[in-house]
Design a protein that fits this description.
five-stranded parallel sheet, Rossmann fold, globular, alpha/beta
């Protein structure tokens, strides 16, 4: 199975990124995590991205706050799917990161999830990989079924308590 590459612009993004890591672990999807800044370590970010395909990655996730150029830099150096996670910061509650991540020029697409939406980034990465991995597709279907059952169980509990 191909790996998911996760890059964060700063170690301060780790609490958000950890949600993606946890989701990938729960789905038994291999991954690597790195801290490469679009601004402070541009060569490393660029090299990681341009070598990702030959290094066994199938999807890349880039998490960054504030100026949030990381996902665009990553996407500019590879044709692998790139998923951007805009991270909330003390400035503008992450709106700046969201706009920087989602506003990519034609020809360099970045799929973008919600601000701090790391779990969904991991799920989207897994869904992309599952296009060529039936076992992973089954694990995703099982997760959806368990999620549905959990919501219906809570619904039943609430209905029993309040609908008399």
């Amino acid at each position: 199975m191909k790996k998911v590459g996760i890059v964060m612009g700063s170690a301060s993004d780790l609490p958000v990124v950890k949600k993606a890591i946890d989701m990938l672990v729960s789905l038994d999807v291999p991954y690597e995590v790195h801290v490469y800044s679009a601004h402070r370590t541009p060569d490393e970010a660029s090299n990681f991205s341009s070598e990702a395909k030959q290094n066994g990655f199938g999807v890349l996730i880039a998490a960054a706050g504030m100026a949030a150029h990381l996902a665009g830099v990553v996407a500019s150096r590879t044709t692998l799917p790139v998923i951007g996670i805009p991270c909330k910061s003390s400035n503008l509650d992450g709106l700046d990161a969201l706009l920087a991540t989602v506003q990519m020029p034609t020809g360099i697409p970045v799929a973008t999830v919600a601000i701090d939406g790391a779990a969904n980034a991991a799920l989207l990465a897994a869904e992309i990989l599952a296009l060529s991995d039936e076992d992973l597709a089954k694990r995703l279907e099982d997760k959806r079924r368990r999620d549905t059952e959990a919501v219906l169980k809570k619904n039943s509990e609430i209905e029993n308590e309040f609908n008399k």
